[in-house]
Amino acid sequence: MGRRKARKVANISVIDVADRGKAIGRSEEGEIYILDKAVPGDNVDVIFTKKKKGVKQGIVKKYNILSDKRVEPFCEHFGSCGGCKWQNMGYESQLQYKHKQVKDALTRIAKVDEAQVLPIKACEKTRAYRNKLEYSFSSHRWLTAAELDSDVKFENKNALGFHPAGSFMKVVDVKQCHLQDERSDQIRNFIRDYATEHKLAYFNHKTHDGFLRTMIVRNTSIDQWMLIMCFYKEDVEAREKFLNILAEKFPFITSLQYVINGKRNDTIMDQEIICYHGEPIIIEQLGDVRYRIGPKSFFQTNSLQAKILYDTTMQFANLQKEETLYDLYTGIGSIALYASGKCKKVIGIEEVAPAIENAKENAALNEIDNCEFYAADVKDMLNKEFIVKHGKIDVLITDPPRAGMHKDVVMTILAAEPSRIVYVSCNAATQARDISLLNAKYDHELSQPVDMFPHTHHIENVALLTLRT
Asked: pLDDT per residue over 391-404, tens digit each?
């Protein structure tokens, strides 16, 4: 049986945004399509490609009417690299739809009064706001549609940049990225030129061979920089020559590190990372608290907006000097340490053991002695016996991963009855689900959306829940 011929559908009205930066379109017959590169208010012709989980997918072929929400993307790589998918929509409109995303989840799932969802806190800096980017090397460069349609034969297929959406085998060769300070571009572009001049082999994702694999650039608001070079295999002479020239060329790099990763996947969390030059860590500072950031440390990737997020969390928590705070999913203790001066004691729990070691180091760095950190899965450690041993939970802050809290954690919280819960989330849907469960004893008072990632669909929300009397 032959493949089904793609069907063209005309006059699709784009009516809303969808998950993962996509848009929702509706045909004249009422059929719903999920589309890329469309903005609410557009009218488009599409090619219907497939159904995925019962939802029709379409590729925009023609723009009949352009939305008044549209703006000209400022990045030459827009639409190719897989990031910043809302860059073609004005920032005010982005905020509108992010706020709607939070409001819809809370009102539909948790039955929250929409008046309790405060206006979104915008990001003052909409470019160069990230403090961490990871670039990939590939011997198979992603070619644009125009390049594929041309008669040019591309001899050099090496690329250093980002994977396009849906393709892990190829990489978009990035000349300028607007997400991080321009010195990130300087480092990356120099490395590309050096690798070309010295014929260093880029990683081949098909055959799993090559020399240069990935690079991670981290920086902080107090202008410290970390570069982590990941090599697929060891070549001492080439590696040392390469790292030496980087240290000489970029003296602002305060921490130059490397790792040899010969595994099938790119993750380096289970690998030994070696500090080649400078310090093994960089320092970030939010308010009065300093944080040691190592090559494996998790930290909010927008430092300036992280302070706003934490300040909002503190405002909602309204901590008193005699209170004990429990901080679930504490990570490197970023919120716990930020809150430590406002309460009697903080208990932090985190599954990732190295993060807990970072939390203890950060406490020592700041001479904070009222924080205790424990490494374990929250659902296993947070129980009646643990709470009896460490003290009643007066206030609880929880900042779980996108999947939200395990149901056992919710049940333990309900039994413990802290007076206030501040729930920080990067996924409004799972947050709303958990709030709905907590509604057995808690009232939702306020929610404060905070935009951490301009030009993307991602949004953080801080919710305040109070124990019903």
From this structure: 999 999 999 999 99
